[in-house]
Every structure is written in C-alpha cells, then in structure tokens.
C-alpha cells in the first residue's frame, strides 16, 4: 500500500474519468500533484491486477461498484452504478463517445459562463478523442442486428451518417465512435495517467477515501482521508474535487459546504451556506425495448461472432421529438449482449436527452461510507414533457420494428399490453430507468445565482482554493452520452488551473 504524503500542492479527489485528466495535465506541467482514489489503483495498462470485466469492452463492468441505487424513493430499486476504482466510470461504460450538439454548450456560454461555448470546447473534444484512442466503426463493420436498424432508420427520418459527432448535425443514424483497442476498453487511467506515472511530481494513492475538505480562514487547506484503517489529514495548496455527480456534492456536504438546514440536521458545522449543493441532479430517462428475434437473425449473429469481434453496442440514432425545435432530443441504441449465458436478448434502448425533471443528492449521515440519498425524480416534471418525449421515442422504434418484423420478431418488452399510448405512459411512470449519465449537482452559475455552486472557472463560491472538475458542474446535460464530455470537463478545468497560476 502506497503511503500518503503529508502535503501536496494540488490534491485531486477522485481518480475517475475527469480526475485522471486533471491530475495528468497538472503533472505534465511540472506541478506537485496527489491523486486520491477511493477504490484500488490496479497500475498501468497491461498489469495483471486489472479485473477482466473492467477491460472487456463487450460488457459493462460491475466488479468494483459504489453500490448506489434509488433506495426507498420508489417501490422498486433502480441501480445507479458508479465505478470505485482508478479510471472510474471510464472502466465500466459502454464505450460510446458522443459530443452532443452546438446548442448544448453555446447555451451555457449564453447564460454568462464565459469560455464554455462550443467553439471554446471543440479543441478539447478533439484532444480527448485522440488521447482516448477513439475510432469510428464503418457501416461495413456493423453486426447484423446493428445493421438492420441502421438500414431501416431513414424510414423514420434518420438519414444514415458516417459518424455522430458533427456538432452542427441533427437527426441521423451512424456507426459509433468508441474507445476500444483490441477488444479492451481504453479508460482514462491508461490514456492519461500511464504517460505520467513515472513522474516524481505525481503520486497516485488508491484505497484512499476522502471524508471531507478542511477549510481554514475561508480557504481549502487540505483533506481528511481514510487510508489504511486510519483518518489522516493531508495539507493542500489547492483541492480539486472530481468525484462525479454523486460523490462531489457529498464531499462538499461533509465539509460543511451546502444548505445550512441539511447540515444542521446532521450536526455538520457550517463552513459555507450554498443551497445548490446536491440539487439540480438529472439524468436522461431511458427505456429498454426488447424483441423475440428470429432464426434468421440468430444465425446471422452467430456467424458474425464466430468470425471475430461482435460488439453488443455499435450504432446509434438521434432524432428530434415534437418537443425539440433546435436539434434532437432522442437517442436510439441497438443492444445485443453476448455475455448473457443461456438466453438471448434483442433490444434497442431509447433515451430522452434533454430532461426537465430535477432531483437531488443528500447525506444520510456524516459517515463517508454511508450511501447518500439519490433521488433523480425521473419523469416528475409537472408538464409531463419527459414521459411524452420517451413515449414518442418508443413509438418511433415500434414503427421501425414493424418494417423489420421478419428479423426482429415480436415485441416482448414493454409488450403488446402497452401499445395504447396511455398504457405505455403508465408503464414508463411505473418503471423509471436511467442512461447512466448523472450531472448537475454542483452546477456552474454566474454571480447572483443562488443555486450555483461553482463559477465559470469551476471555483466553489465562498471557498478559495477549492474547485470541482467533473459532470456535476454541468448546468444542463448535453445531448450526449457523457463519457467524452467528462473528459472535456477535466481538460477544461486543468487549463483553468494552469491559467490561474
């Protein structure tokens, strides 16, 4: 076990998707950096310590999970999987790299967040894509299940595209861009940390759970870390939180930074009253639709698998519902998992990308190992727009499935009993699901915004020397899967830190 140092100029809390980018960029610049990860550090790429499920890009890894879920907020449990290991969610995701649309980031800049427009961020998207070894499948590479939906998509207003990441493009269906090399998921530990691991000014410590930030005289001066069975204080010149949408706000709350009423109820001494900490939680609501398949599709897929690489996710569609007049607000994701032994599933997911519903993350106790209360309040917007958008997406998929009926077979889920719109809407309300893209709980905002947690330079309001660098600072989720936007969050905040020196 690597020992904790007594102090570091920069302490980065969280060795996940964004945190590794921040730590690597600061270390490359010659700065003294300590990276703390609550889960294990398995070492560089190629180390035998890496669990197989975290490397295998054909499935979603689950061996190192925080165990977060919806708790008792619904009559059933919705899992909110987050990776607790070096690399974070870049260890376990589906490897789909999408950027969203120009309106996403330009809207941030138009709200007063200088430096966050699409043109500001595009160089960082390109750099992140290069570092993460992203490549784009060709249409000829698609498996029979993926190709069937790709070929059918133009009938529903989605022209066949070469890729998904033209930020000025709206509807279309395209092969995915993925961070996969020789069947291995390329995470940010491989892409960003490995090139700098040998630098003497970078120290990476795993199994180091940060309890709270120490604030002295209005400035972050260090962190309290649980490591090796003991609580230790490490001094810091600057603290950068990169725990993601669930863990960054909980660290702030345990540090006394957040809504006073919540902190008082847990006997956490108030450091800075910031009522927006933990609020504005949102994710894109999701529905996984499944069909019975056919003998023809089964045989075609078996031939593809026997010939070599046959990914479960490989193409994606985007289209606008009647609620979006700017670009698009629906994703379609064909899915045909190979690792489910003893049964086959022929599925396509649909997600509403611009949700109006907002939830929250709150502490149950001041114990850093206690699971927080996570309530996304899926489909809770009073206008009912979120459920209406998702229902429109399901209707589009059913239209496509009708044209593919001989290949895809009969609908199994949600099934014929939901063919009437009212029945489908009732099903969606009873069975909320997520797209694994939580954001917004430490959101950026301009001066005078009472619910802003950080400013446009990612500085926590009212606390010097404390920044947040992950998807929690997003004011509103982009029309994207958030893996590459999370890399861009790290790239952007690292540059802000270097500028401010």
Briefly, what is this?
Keywords: FAD, Flavoprotein. By secondary structure, the protein is an alpha+beta fold.
Describe this structure in words.
This is GMC family oxidoreductase. Belongs to the GMC oxidoreductase family. Its cofactor is FAD. With 501 residues, the protein is of the alpha+beta class. It folds into two domains: 299 residues, FAD/NAD(P)-binding domain; 160 residues, Cholesterol Oxidase, domain 2, CATH 3.30.410.40. 27% of the residues lie in helices and 20% in strands. It contains 13 helices and 22 strands. The strands form six sheets. Strands 1, 2, 8, 9, 10, 11 and 22 form a seven-stranded mixed β-sheet that branches. Strands 4-16-17-18-15-21 form a six-stranded antiparallel β-sheet. A three-stranded antiparallel β-sheet has the order 14-19-20. Strand 9 and strand 10 form a beta hairpin. It is globular and about 70 Å long. It starts with 6 loop residues before the first strand and ends with a helix.
List keywords for this structure.
single chain, 501 residues, 7-stranded mixed beta sheet, 6-stranded antiparallel beta sheet, 27% helix, 20% strand, globular
